[in-house]
Write a structure and sequence with these properties.
Layout: E1 2-6, H1 10-22, E2 26-31, H2 34-44, E3 48-52, H3 62-73, E4 78-83, H4 89-95, E5 102-106, H5 113-124, E6 128-130, H6 132-140, H7 153-164, H8 168-175, H9 179-192, H10 201-212
Parallel strand pairs: 1-2, 1-3, 3-4, 4-5, 5-6
Helix pairs in contact: 2-3, 6-7, 7-9, 7-10, 8-9
GO molecular function: DNA binding
InterPro entries: CheY-like_superfamily, NreC/VraR/RcsB-like_REC, Sig_transdc_resp-reg_C-effctor, Sig_transdc_resp-reg_receiver, Tscrpt_reg_LuxR_C, WalR-like, WH-like_DNA-bd_sf
Protein name: Response regulator
């Protein structure tokens, strides 16, 4: 697995690189700004990019813009976005190309090595990895669309795990229910949210996350 890291915080950037290399992963470049990141993507053709949401010069959404451009230049590139705060403005642009090979983690998750590496491998393998805290806060925020209120508590639990990127089997294991029960809950969720039922992991996670885009963002610098 060839990895490029784009993070303007020196300690975090080098810490992540050291961690990944200790796991025998190939960190081919580390950068601290969007322009160098895109050059590294062109030069090294990585499998995965780990990208900070906010980088110089304005520390707004340079990382997201660069990640979108990197995926345009290198179709199939897996992107794991890091942010210091829960903010969903990243979703609209990144999810425009589908949720496959996409992750969004809070930076504090990096310190939980097993969880961080699990998310990295899940994204690299074509899946989705959304930080549980991100999902929890987005689900809890008020929105103009009240369709989430139609869901039962168990359906909200299933929806949250779907949004994290877990498959039916993993959801069943986490909630200690059968696969059949999970499948039934998912069909009910899609019906209540007025979404076409589909068991495709990419489409269902994309649909859930796009629905969650109605949540309000939390201001703050990443």
């Amino acid at each position: 697995m060839r990895i490029v890291i784009a993070e303007d915080d020196l300690l975090l950037r080098e810490g992540v690189a050291l961690l990944l290399r200790a796991e025998s992963l190939d960190v081919v470049a580390t950068t601290d700004n969007p322009d160098d990141f895109l050059r590294a993507v062109d030069e090294h053709e990585p499998d995965v990019a780990i990208v900070d949401v906010r980088m110089p010069p304005t520390h707004t959404k340079e990382g997201i813009v660069a990640a979108v451009e990197a995926r345009r230049r290198r179709p199939g590139l897996a992107v794991l976005v890091l942010s210091a705060y829960v903010e969903q403005s990243f979703a609209t642009d990144l999810l425009a190309g589908g949720s496959a090979r996409l992750g969004y983690l809070l930076k504090e998750r990096v310190g939980r090595v097993t969880e961080f590496l699990d998310a990295l491998h899940r994204v690299a393998d074509g899946g989705t990895a959304i930080d549980p805290e991100v999902v929890a806060q987005l689900l809890a925020r008020p929105r103009s669309d009240d369709r989430l209120e139609r869901l039962s508590p168990r359906e909200r639990d299933v929806l949250a795990l779907m949004a994290e990127g877990l498959g039916n089997g993993a959801i069943a294991e986490r909630l200690v229910v059968t696969d059949g029960a999970v499948h039934k809950h998912i069909r009910s969720i899609f019906a209540k949210l007025d979404l076409a039922p589909d068991d495709s992991a990419d489409r269902r996670v994309t649909a859930v996350l796009r629905y969650l885009e109605n949540a309000r963002t939390v201001p703050g610098r990443a």
